[in-house]
Design a protein that fits this description.
The complex is a heterodimer of chains A (395) and B (173). Chain A is mainly β and 395 residues long. Chain A has a single domain, classed as Porin. Chain A contains two helices and 20 strands. In chain A, the strands form two sheets. Chain A has a 16-stranded antiparallel barrel with strand order 1-2-3-4-5-6-7-11-12-13-14-16-17-18-19-20. In chain A, strands 8-10 form a two-stranded antiparallel ribbon. Chain A is globular, with a radius of gyration of 25 Å. With 173 residues, chain B is mostly helical. Chain B has a single domain, classed as Orthogonal Bundle (Cytochrome Bc1 Complex, Chain D, domain 2), CATH 1.10.760. Helices cover 58% and strands 2% of the residues of chain B. Chain B is built from eight helices and two strands, in the order αααααββααα. Chain B has a two-stranded antiparallel sheet with strand order 1-2. In chain B, a hairpin with a 2-residue loop joins β1 and β2. The chains are: A mainly beta (395), B mainly alpha (173). At the A-B interface, α1, β1, β2, β4 and α2 of A face α1, α2 and α3 of B.
Chain lengths: 395, 173
């Protein structure tokens, strides 16, 4: 009997120990300030050459084992000299189970890879964003496809371990969604005199107040064979006008192939946006786009009739980027040197292609001096060549 | 007699279990580091942050990398063992010079990042023939000061003495 008690005690102790020791062995912190920043110089044919920079602190808090808070602020100075501040994300993760995480707040949308994972300047191998992510890093002539990178809402993350190196990643989210930018009636695209429809300069933004009852939904499903392969498919769907009539949809495929000295990454994004097209109507309605359905009619001030038709803009674009570390050559001098090439293409609206060549000198694993040359040729004949020099650092 | 045996067993479990559980976690953690930590960005060497800071960063990366909670804890154990900071504060029981090269390699999970004798990770290069390639002195220097020939090295600076490094170089020969 005594022996039984002892053994029971002993195994209870052992049981306790197998659970506890790792935790005892580890030390717990409460908060960390990390982040990134960059200083850059850019020279182009069109604009005056400029220096610019950003400071992007990240605040991380561990409230307990299950609750983790994170926020990222971006500080920069705009061309007008005003200091610009942007809340990139501010959210709370709740680690519900070993492989289930819930997120609430403003978070980076798990749509493709560049937005959530590669955009910080020390992570991005080049000083610019790929052509299809216009607006996030100086994109010259190319306009971006995915309008927002982060938004307010709720997300769930699930993963499955198939054993070995195979994993399944699933992210699903509900967010406010995009709206056409305030004081901008840009959902009304204009048709030029030949009725060739110009792309509606849809400027989207996300905010903490939804402009309609419809919430945007999205997600990403990926399969990974760690550490070398990851392929994912993403979707995103939002209504963006006040009356829930106009729809924006995006889909993406991404692929990542990571080796010891190189990485190859690619993304394809396709978006479809409804837009109202204003037609200059004279007397006859004969020339109207036959497939467009008539949406609205309002008499304009001058008595002249303005007719809007709803049309669907289907756009797509992709990029492929390869990076190679000269460390492979086993020459001390070249150990910190890396070469990168990226090809981007945008189609249907604002068509064009772009080549970017870069060379990086890594001073630490998260600080690099990057030099890049970027050449953009739009199908309508415009072209642009830029040179970038950037010092980027993650801290 | 049996009771005595049980007592000894209980003591044995109490004293040794924490070590072995942690050691196992370190080896697993090294594998997890290799699987995840250079997928999106260059791997970051452990000495950049204190252990307390890593305990906050790891959950941040757990979410990014879609790691499980168990994986995150093991990763933390691996990072903890490589930290120089702990040698300075002396609060953690770290390598003893009596450990031979092979044991040190196990303790610090070199194989988490390097292929050694046919198995291991790929964050760093395979270590086969490295002594012939770099020279014994070169290997010792690399172990003590990983950035000497590569400022962007993500190899952690381990809390190792020169004797330890020499033992490791011998074991790699």
């Amino acid at each position: 009997m005594k022996r039984f008690i002892l053994i029971a005690l002993c195994s209870a102790l052992a049981g306790n120990l197998t659970a506890a020791p790792l935790d005892e062995y580890l030390r717990h912190g409460r908060s960390v300030i990390s982040g990134y920043g960059d200083v850059g110089y850019q020279k182009s044919d069109f604009e005056k050459d400029t220096f610019s920079g950003r400071f992007v602190p990240i605040f991380l808090y561990q409230l307990n084992d299950k609750i983790h808070v994170e926020a990222e602020l971006e500080f920069s100075v705009g061309p007008d000299g005003e200091t610009e501040t942007e809340l990139e994300y501010a959210d709370l993760h709740y680690f519900l189970a070993d492989r289930i995480t819930l997120t609430a707040g403003k978070f980076l949308l798990p749509f493709a890879q560049f937005g959530p994972n590669f955009h910080p300047s020390w992570v991005n191998r080049l000083p610019t964003a790929p052509g299809l992510y216009g607006g996030h890093g100086g994109n010259g002539l190319m306009s971006g496809l995915m309008p927002v990178l982060s938004d307010y809402g709720l997300a769930g993350q699930f993963s499955h371990d198939f054993g070995g190196n195979s994993r399944l990643f699933l992210d699903l989210y509900v967010v406010n969604g995009i709206s056409a930018e305030a004081d901008d009636h840009s959902e009304e695209a204009v048709a030029d005199e030949h009725e060739a429809i110009l792309f509606p300069e849809l400027e989207f933004e996300s905010s903490s107040a939804d402009n309609n009852d419809n919430k945007a939904v999205g997600g990403r499903l990926a399969f990974a064979f760690l550490p070398q392969w990851e392929a994912g498919a993403s979707f995103y769907q939002s209504k963006y006008d006040d009356t829930d009539d106009l729809d924006f949809q995006a889909n993406a495929f991404d692929i990542n192939w990571i080796g010891q000295y190189w990485s190859v990454r690619g993304e394809y994004i396709r978006t479809e946006a409804d837009a109202l097209i204003e037609l200059e109507v004279e007397d006859d309605h004969g020339d109207e786009e036959p497939e467009a359905d008539e949406h609205d009619e309002e008499p304009a001030d001058d008595g002249h009739e303005e007719v809007f038709v709803q049309k669907n803009f289907d756009r797509n674009g992709w990029y492929v980027q390869a990076a190679w570390q000269a460390r492979q050559l086993n020459m001390d001098m070249l150990n910190p040197v890396e070469f990168i090439v990226r090809h981007s293409r945008t189609r249907e609206v604002d068509e064009g292609e772009r080549w970017t060549f870069g060379i990086n000198y890594w001073m630490t694993p998260s600080a690099a001096l990057k030099l890049a040359w970027e050449d953009t040729e739009m199908d309508d004949g415009r072209d642009d060549t830029r040179v970038f020099l950037q010092l980027s650092f993650g801290f | 007699m049996n009771i005595l045996f049980s007592v000894v067993l209980a003591l044995f479990v109490t004293v040794l279990a924490p070590l072995s559980v942690a050691d196992e976690a370190v080896a697993e953690g090294a594998r997890i580091f290799n699987q995840n930590c250079s997928r999106c960005h260059n791997a970051r060497p452990a000495q950049e942050f204190h252990q307390e800071e890593w305990s906050v960063i790891v959950p941040h990366m757990r979410e990014k990398a879609h790691m499980s909670g168990k994986e995150a804890k093991k990763l933390e154990a691996f990072i903890a063992v490589t930290l120089t900071a702990d040698k300075v504060t002396g609060s953690q029981d770290l390598p003893t010079e009596e450990l031979g090269g092979v044991a040190l390699m196990q303790k610090f999970a070199c194989a988490g990042c390097h292929r050694i004798n046919g198995t291991g990770g790929a964050v760093g290069p395979a270590l086969k023939g490295v002594v012939a390639r770099m020279g014994r002195e070169g290997v010792i220097r690399k172990i003590l000061e990983p950035t000497f020939n590569n400022p962007s090295s993500s190899m952690p600076r381990f809390p190792l003495s020169e004797t330890d490094a020499a033992a490791l170089a011998d074991a790699l020969e």
